[in-house]
């Protein structure tokens, strides 16, 4: 499946305290960008040509378009136009669409549009856990987030919750999931913040308890609860879609992955701009990165066959080298592996063999 990831805007209607410094520090280089209007007819023609020719080159017939920000729903009208035009201009491919949002702009007058999308909402749990999520005036955003979630549920529109897990909140993650689960949230995606150096002070035993706790809750609620940690983790645990992904920044610059967009090394891995058209793009940069799909490191552990050297964009961001895994990532993989394996075996024996 070809994955097209469009950054519709670098602006956001929230000023989350844990995100503001980190995200905006990394995005300073983007402040001077001349923003590209993805809904412009000429831009869509160029974008469609690049996507269509790339899919032919990959011999692929499935396209997934993901909309990101900032807060992408700031540009909700443009998102709908891009979707409409991509369907028209890529009619020979099977297409799906997703949007990752903070949920605050989901309202009665636009909620129906989300039936055509896979919706991911960023939320940290109950009101206390979301204390750092504030609007531009510093007001709590929790009620607006829950209003969007409630609307989706009432309209029977599927959605999943995105939660960032760090060394400072991991002990409260299960509590947060239980709260959101009680609020009719059934699908969860945990994003471990591997850039958090605080993980160095969390022992392997504490990590094991965290993953075991997640495993127990997932098994107890197997028929009504799904989480990426266990549902997506099949052997091999990590499969990179580097050669099948195009991430396009707000100014039209194209990268092999979203992790490269805000990386300090982004210019090294930018393959060109939409305006360069297909033949003007440096596809050789993706080919160069693809050699890392096979790990031949001397320092790999017994889980080498499962991690497949991790995420190359994340590696670059954390270690400065695409083929060097962060030690923190390694620790999480090793400590989570047993819980994931036990979950898979329990599910197979209890539910899948009946």
The dominant shape is globular
- How far is it from the N-terminal to the C-terminal residue, by CA? 32 Å
Number of helices: 12
The residue ranges in which pLDDT falls below 50 over 5 or more consecutive positions are: 234-238
Nearest-integer average pLDDT: 87
Q: What structural category characterises the helix and strand content? A: alpha/beta
Tell me the number of strands: 10
Structure keywords:
globular, 38% helix, alpha/beta
Describe this structure in words.
The protein has twelve helices and ten strands. By secondary structure, the chain is of the alpha/beta class. It has a ten-stranded mixed β-sheet. Helix 5 (173-182) links the parallel strand 5 (159-165) and strand 6 (187-192). It is globular and about 55 Å long.
Short description:
The chain is of the alpha/beta class. It has helices at residues 17-26, 41-58, 76-89, 142-154, 173-182, 204-220, 228-231, 266-269, 284-289, 304-307, 312-319, 327-352; strands spanning 2-7, 62-68, 94-101, 118-122, 159-165, 187-192, 226-227, 245-248, 253-255, 272-273. It is globular.
